[in-house]
Amino acid sequence: MRKHILNSCIFFFCIGSLNAIAQDSSMTRRQAPKKNFMDNVFIGGNLGLQFGTVTFADISPLVGYRFTKKISAGIGVTYQYYHYKDRYYDFETNVYGGRVFGRYNFTDYLFGHLEYEYLNMEAFDFSRRRVDVNSLMAGAGYIQRIGDRAGIVAMVLYNFTETVYTPYQNPIFRVGIVFGL
Questions:
Q1: According to the model, what pLDDT value does residue 12 have?
Q2: Do 143 and 111 contact (CB within 8 A), yes or no?
Q3: Structural domain boundaries enclosing 117
Q4: Cys bridge to 172: 20, 49, 68, 157, which one at CB 3.0-4.6 A?
Q5: Cα-based distances in Å from 15 to 4, 5, 23, 26, 70
Q6: Which of 67, 65, 42 is nearest to 148 (CA)?
């Protein structure tokens, strides 16, 4: 039995050695390996919680694609729970929607961000009806890298189409995380 294990180890060692000796000459030219589609995909999003007179929860995952070192774009979905309660007023709603965004990287850490967001929510008035809120936002962001393939993202955005139903006021601050950079 020991002889069989020893012979198997010697066989695999010899095969491995032959493979190392017969290297492809293209590997010696130090060419960068070709990237596949998934190497340029990134995922991430935002998660927010607030408790008190205003209770707020936000779950906003996203997926994007890096077309070049400078340009990336993506889509995301948004779900928000909002509850306001004081001794005079009690309002609760669920907000849902999506977004499309584009980014231009000025450096490895600074980027410009352009986004269109659609939200459907209950109106902040006494009619208790749902309204569609469309927002066109632009701003800048900073990414703090965590290793080679992840980072924490902070952005400041300005909503150019703010309405009475927009759920947040200018400027908009976002913090999130991305994987697969």
A1: 36
A2: yes
A3: 42-179
A4: 157
A5: 17, 15, 13, 21, 44
A6: 42
